[in-house]
Amino acid sequence: MTEKRFTQDHEWVELSGDTATIGISNFAQDQLGDIVSIEFPEINSKFKQKDAMAIVDSVKASSDIYCPMDGTIIEVNENLEDHPELINKSPYSEGWMLKLKVSNISQFENLMTQQQYEKFVGEAKG
């Protein structure tokens, strides 16, 4: 099974070789409410860790999606353009957002594990 890591901004990352699949956590989609659209970056756009790279619009707010690792966008989940609700229904599988060719693999190790993230979210909820 591929390990997921998490950011403090509630993105998740799954790494396979030098390709990172990225989405938002179940906690994040729950906080946003019903997602109505997503604005993707261009394919081949380069981002540094923590750069805003996409925008998710929900009934409550617009939220930036931040790049969890340095890299280049190689794919976006086009299903989300017609079905953004997949992010709400299935944030860890069908609702993935984009794929990044990672230029600094070591950054993955600095992201939170599932356990660390659950503790982080638990503390955030108070």
Largest sheet: 6 strands, antiparallel
Superfamily (CATH H level) name: RNA polymerase II/Efflux pump adaptor protein, barrel-sandwich hybrid domain
Second CATH tier, the architecture: Beta Barrel
Quote the distance from N terminus to C terminus: 31 Å
Strand segment tally: 9
Structural class: alpha+beta
Strand order, biggest sheet? 1-2-3-9-8-5
Backbone CA Rg: 13 Å
CATH top level assignment = Mainly Beta
Number of alpha- plus pi-helical segments: 4
Low-confidence stretches: none
Number of domains: 1
One letter per element, helices H and strands E, the order comes to EEEHEEEEEHHEH
Q: CATH topology, which one?
A: OB fold (Dihydrolipoamide Acetyltransferase, E2P)
Mean pLDDT, to the nearest integer, reads 96
Shape: globular
Strand content: 35-45%
Fraction of helical residues? 10-25%
Describe the structure.
This protein is an alpha+beta fold and about 130 residues long. It has a single domain, classed as OB fold (Dihydrolipoamide Acetyltransferase, E2P) (Beta Barrel), CATH 2.40.50.100. Helices cover about 20% and strands about 35% of the residues. The protein has four helices and nine strands. It has helices spanning about 25-30, 80, 85-90, 115-125; strands spanning about 5, 10-15, 20-25, 35-40, 45, 50-60, 60-65, 70-75, 100. The strands form two sheets. A six-stranded antiparallel β-sheet has the order 1-2-3-9-8-5. Strand 1 and strand 2 (about 10-15) form a beta hairpin. The longest helix is centred in the C-terminal third of the chain and has 11 residues, at about 115-125. The chain starts with a strand and ends with a helix. The relative contact order is 0.24. The mean pLDDT is about 95.
